[in-house]
Amino acid sequence: MTKQDRAVRTRLALIRSAAEQFEARGYVRASLSEISAGAGVSSGALHFHFANKAAVAEAVEHAAARALRQVAVRGRGDDGCALQRLVDVTHHVARLLCADVVVRAGLRLNAEAVAGRVRDLRREWRECVHELLAEAERKGELAAGMPSHRSGAVVLAATTGIEVLAREDPGWLARTSLTDLWRLLLPCVAAPHLAGALDPAGTEPDRAEPDAGGEPGGALEEPGRAGLALR
């Protein structure tokens, strides 16, 4: 293993350890000594990569944002029913939240708005939902009286609520929970001709999303290998 490879692995380990601390203790109570110990490195190694705790938190949010955007992009640019793609993306996001502590911690940090940072991770989700529902509206997939902006408000409120509730009870992210949600929403949101054609459980197998261990597509994908650039 080269020196550069070791440095990359150390950085990824520090981000994961920091995510575990931020998720369990919050930003204020998490300490740099606990983060370095969790990564199995010295405090000096931590400070080689990050100047302070705010910089570590920023790295966690950055990794979480990349992972969420990679999931959201799956619903874009495909043929077929936009509403079904929206359902599928919500299931992808739920599996990612279950599997990836970095994404969970990134959302918590973002909600706490620590250190005055301005990145809005939920904006990425809002844009994804609005884009897919606007496409659904153009294709005539939405019910009468449910234009994309009204449908979007309902979907965003429901999915954001599930993410918040799941911080205390991960069962809210179960496939059955999201399926029940879509069973209630789709008859109100979808055009009548789509009744019976949409699958509230999603159209892909129920498999775990890659976790943040540096595997392609995970939140801790190594710099330069990510498929999407962050702003």
Any overview of this molecule?
The chain is an all-alpha fold and 231 residues long. It has nine helices and no strands. The protein has helices spanning 3-29, 32-39, 43-49, 53-72, 82-99, 101-112, 121-138, 148-165, 175-189. The radius of gyration is 19 Å and the shape is elongated.
Q: What oligomeric state do the depicted chains represent?
A: single chain
Beginning-to-end CA distance, first to last residue:
31 Å
Which spans have pLDDT < 50 for at least 5 consecutive residues?
209-217, 222-231
Class derived from helix and strand content: mainly alpha
Most strands sheet: none
Mean pLDDT: 85
Q: Nearest-angstrom radius of gyration?
A: 19 Å
Number of helices: 9
Number of strands: 0
Encode the helix/strand succession as letters: HHHHHHHHH
What spatial form do the alpha-carbon principal axes imply?
elongated
Helix content range of the residues, please?
Answer: 55-70%
* Beta strand %: under 5%
Q: How would you summarize this macromolecular structure in one to three sentences?
A:
This protein has 231 residues and is mostly helical. It is 62% helix and 0% strand. It is built from 9 helices and no strands.
